[in-house]
């Protein structure tokens, strides 16, 4: 198999899972962007889990050796053979310069047959469903997220947050709905559950937090199709 070395800036980090090759370690997938401005789906990267031991964060610059995975035909997907964290994370300004030229719409992604894209959303509504108010540990909570993705309706996340939006600048867009799986956002949700037990209070705090994010920052979605 052909190998290639790339420098990748991390945009999204998925939930760490137990490594199949190393019983004591974890593996994680990331979505990153290379110096050519290409979005890539990378897996598996080795990961040290525990308080103070996280060694892959958003904006980190990684040097990876990759090849095509055996069972994934999506051109954005790469199998990671080796990795080095260059310990030189990009600044938000640098990330923005790489990402902004990629902003598109779900409609255009479907036409192009792409499986990854950057969307600038126009938020229409936020739907919050509180399933469980039990407090979970950090890794337990994100394991539930993984179960939800894998098993769908057969598994529940403690709190499901769905966002209704239009793709900004896309006249053909009639609106979309997605579930928010951002790790940092869901860590905030987990912390809210620790402080609040009433579903109505949990919902109100989440909406307040999300509204604050929209006001403070430019919001973009990394969308997987």
Key phrases:
225 residues, alpha+beta, OB fold (Dihydrolipoamide Acetyltransferase, E2P), 3-stranded mixed β-sheet, 27% helix, 5-stranded mixed β-barrel, 2 domains
Structure report:
The chain is 27% helix and 35% strand. With 225 residues, the chain is α+β, with helices and mostly antiparallel strands. The chain folds into two domains: 4-96, Beta Barrel (OB fold (Dihydrolipoamide Acetyltransferase, E2P)), CATH 2.40.50; 105-224, no CATH class. The strands form three sheets. A five-stranded mixed β-barrel has the order 1-3-4-6-5. A three-stranded mixed beta sheet has the order 7-8-12. The radius of gyration is 18 Å and the shape is globular. The chain starts with a strand and ends with a strand.
